[in-house]
Automatic annotation (TrEMBL), chains A, B:
Keywords: FAD, Flavoprotein, Oxidoreductase, Redox-active center
InterPro entries linked to this entry: FAD-bd_OxRdtase (IPR050260), FAD/NAD-bd_sf (IPR036188), FAD/NAD-binding_dom (IPR023753), FAD/NAD-linked_Rdtase_dimer_sf (IPR016156), Pyr_nucl-diS_OxRdtase_dimer (IPR004099)
Family listed: Belongs to the class-III pyridine nucleotide-disulfide oxidoreductase family.
Keyword Ribosomal protein attached: no
Keyword Membrane tagged: no
PANTHER family: NAD(P)H SULFUR OXIDOREDUCTASE (COA-DEPENDENT) (PTHR43429:SF1), PYRIDINE NUCLEOTIDE-DISULFIDE OXIDOREDUCTASE DOMAIN-CONTAINING (PTHR43429)
Domain Pyridine nucleotide-disulphide oxidoreductase dimerisation: 332-436
Cofactor: FAD
Protein name: FAD-dependent oxidoreductase
Native species: Aeromicrobium alkaliterrae
Length: 453, 453
């Protein structure tokens, strides 16, 4: 019997496994190893679980282990892979079993960055990457913490801080940069800082965490920031993640940016025979710069899982491959209270790093016609290339109806449109939704003006 | 002195005039004739004025006659052009004046369709195209009408009906088709019908208006629909518009679809020397089919006005032309109460008429992750071409956060993307905004499945 072995039972692994199970005849076995108890869950939903908007972990599970098993997948939860033997074509589990495979799919996800600081392994210093991590935070809330410190102000940090404040817990966010949320330009980050402080969050910027003070039981009681101790019964690390690729690397598979496993556009691992990788554990590429990037997001993991399934099935069944993963344009969106924040494409520094000559403009506009009641404000920042006039990036911060405006920009960037092309796009207009020019086009017109002057 | 003469002082005419005034030296004269008292106003805002959301007509005026005059434009309000003499290069006004021109810009807008029915010229049977029309409706409201009938259920009809209901007036909408809002597919129109009835509007479909009953003073008192009289103190016609191009046609300028003046991509009128036209009075083309279409919308009028200004200035100053108007993809958006309705590209019949072989899919999805509180529903209908797999059209009906989703689709259609391309787009994802797949992509995946089966 031909065995497809998948390591990792979240978005990428399970979307690949499920699609393969549907497409492959019964003579093919699909085995999935998942070290946790959950499958196919939304890690992005953890902050909303912590906030109380989502009742329990199971609500974040798109498809349970039972459902996957009912669909014919040999799913082994609570089972971790500890070694990959590419020569013998076997994977060793933490139960000591050696499982042979014909096809290997590595979907081991990402792990939160835990800098090597004194006390970081203390109790109550938690990451938020898996549902297990989320459960640990929920359990910690049972102890009625008075003070939470969130280290880092990426979108996970931001969302977690909002969740704690919603629960009435004193919340401090510590950020080493001058402004929060480094995925957007500092000028927009200022607006986020303002909103955080307005919501009662203690935001410390330009602040270096030096370590964690633990009590006699080894539980965190404070965070040392620039020599001063901030009281904390609970610490959440929101410092970003790296690919969880130690297992793959130990087997000799190539890794790149932030440990991401290197694959081609079919998600085949470079230099390995019948080994695919997908999701937060892989390196991908930016469609504009063609440079490698590590971009762990569920939306990419699902697409890559789909690509893997297509290519594995094509390989096993001798059919033509149909799908490739074309890369990303770094689109991201989040919400802090009523403030919507989104971005796509390149920021100014990223554009420079990729040898573009960026022109950056920033405009203020309204989310509806100026005469409509209760107009919402938004700021749109746009990055274009001076030489080619290509649209390189768009970032939006604003009220309701602001964030999703980047979708049109993401599509325009993917299509290689210039800012002149964007000005002439036929985007939706009616008084409740925009002034005569869509906010993205108001910014594009400002860019045209800047390029022509 | 070289004179640029503009006929029409709304979006297209004034955006062209204003841009030309900024760009041309003082030796060039910019004269605008506007038959009404207002300039640069938002006709799209009239329903919100009638609803009481907007206090007065002046709020809908983006730039007043005084402001335009201060900027150096010779603006003559209350002055209508009555004849164009292309040979003498003169325009005659209703004051009997003959104005010479070097450059003529025709921006005469559109006029509501008024079918030749008994009683249609009665008092209280109103269109809604200009601010003057809007003022007439506002004045009619002073008479405290008990029953309003809206004839036609395009977006203007819909928005006006909502406005009347908001004022507590009994409102009937009469539509000759089986479902309202013909810009979307009937299956989506059903949802709009439901929402209208849910709001207390009497919606008559498959219903033919045969005429209007007038009282002894010549004021409307009823609408005859299929032999029965529906009481009405006020009737609003929402039957669409045609280009107001009689003046241009009488001068021998070519007209096409719905009377739209025929121009090239620089908005030069075909076959005429130094005559441009822009806005609701022109015919444009669909970017997908390359077929001519009349699509009167402020967003196109503004862009065309900009193109005219660029080309006129280039011509007069001997500089290279920079802008062309590339056409439209028929994007439209509206809102009925909480229901957002939008479309872009081609509908099924339009696709067939353009010799495509359309595959149509329709999906239901949520505006956020399924586990988030208060998810909003939306329906996305997608049209693709079987042979090329190109995305042809997208229509959305749903709650908050639904309507603007078409912007990404409009951009993808403009770029000529296939549904496979759309599936791989990097669109914004976070739990408050979408499930892992954006609604447009959920529909694109359904289309891929339909195309592959």
């Amino acid at each position: 019997m031909t065995r497809v072995l998948v390591i990792g039972g979240d978005a990428a692994g399970m979307s690949a496994a499920a699609a393969l199970r549907r497409r492959l005849p019964d003579a093919y076995e699909v085995v999935v190893l998942e070290r946790d108890a959950w499958t196919s869950y939304s890690a992005c939903g953890i902050p909303y679980w912590v906030a109380g908007d989502v009742a329990e972990a199971d609500d974040l599970v798109a498809r349970s282990p039972e459902q996957h098993r009912k669909n014919g997948i040999d799913l082994r939860t609570g089972t971790a892979a500890v070694a990959i033997d590419l020569e013998a074509r076997e994977v060793e589990t933490d139960a000591g079993e050696r499982l042979a495979f014909d096809v290997l799919i590595v979907a081991t996800g990402a792990e939160p960055l835990r800098p090597d600081l004194p006390g970081i392994d203390g109790e109550g210093v938690l990451g938020v990457q898996s549902l297990g991590d989320g459960q640990a935070v929920i359990d910690a809330l049972e102890q009625k913490p008075k003070n939470v410190v969130v280290v880092g102000s990426g979108y996970v940090g931001l969302e977690m801080a909002e969740a704690f404040v919603a629960r009435g817990i004193g919340t401090t966010v510590v950020e080493k940069a001058p402004v929060p949320l480094s995925i957007i330009e500092p000028s927009l980050g200022e607006k986020v800082a303002e909103a955080m402080r307005g919501r009662g969050i203690e935001l410390l910027t330009d602040a270096a965490v030096e370590g964690f003070e633990l009590d006699d039981d080894g539980h965190v009681r404070g965070v040392v920031v620039d020599g001063e101790t901030i009281p904390a019964d609970l610490v959440v690390l929101g410092l970003g993640v790296r690919a969880r690729s130690d297992l793959a690397a130990a087997a000799g598979l190539p890794t790149g940016v932030k440990g991401g496993i290197v694959t081609d556009a079919r998600q085949r691992v470079a230099g390995a025979d019948r080994v695919w990788a997908a999701g937060d554990c892989v390196e991908t590429r930016d469609r504009t710069t063609d440079l490698p990037i590590h971009l762990p997001l569920g939306t990419h993991a699902n697409k890559q899982g789909m690509v893997v399934a297509d290519d594995v099935a094509a390989t096993l069944l001798g059919e033509p491959n149909r799908l490739t993963f074309p890369g990303v344009v770094q689109t991201a969106i989040t919400k802090f209270c009523a403030l919507e924040i989104s971005r796509t494409g390149l920021g100014e520094q990223q554009a420079k790093d990729a040898a573009f000559d960026p022109v950056v403009v920033s405009i203020q506009t309204s989310d509806r016609a100026g005469y409509m009641p209760e107009p919402g404000e938004m700021t749109v920042l746009l990055v274009a290339d001076r030489q080619t006039r290509r649209l390189l990036g768009v970032q939006v911060v604003g009220s309701e109806n602001a964030g999703l405006r980047v979708d049109a920009a993401a599509t325009a960037i993917t299509a290689g449109m210039t800012v002149d092309d964007v000005v002439m796009l036929d985007l939706a207009y009616a008084p409740p939704f925009a002034s005569v020019w869509s906010p993205i086009q108001v910014a594009a017109r400002a860019a045209v003006k800047a390029l022509d002057s």
